[in-house]
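Before a computer can learn anything about folding, someone has to put a protein's shape into writing. The outcome of that step, for a single protein, is printed below:
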Amino acid sequence: MFGSLGFTELILILFIVLIIFGAGKLPQLGEGLGKAIKGFKKSVHEADAIEAEAEAAQQQQQQMAAPQQAIPTAPAPGMEQPAAQPATRA
């Protein structure tokens, strides 16, 4: 990012900022910039965590929705299945 800026250019920029904001405001500006960067990093990590949670939930839903092989079981005693009645034409 600062590859094209040399040492003298950075000193010149810092000097201009010092003139514009004054020496008393520089610590406040630095603190505000630090908090902004920290908040940005935190939101990026939270977004990654939310995406990972959503992806895991989606995979879990897909696994639950996948047709599972049914195990054929014999009907319980007394639970007879009704016989199929042939269709009649009128």
User: Anything to note?
Assistant: Helices lie at 7-21, 26-65. Residues 63 and 69 are 13 Å apart (CA to CA). Residues 26-63 form one domain. The mean pLDDT is 79.
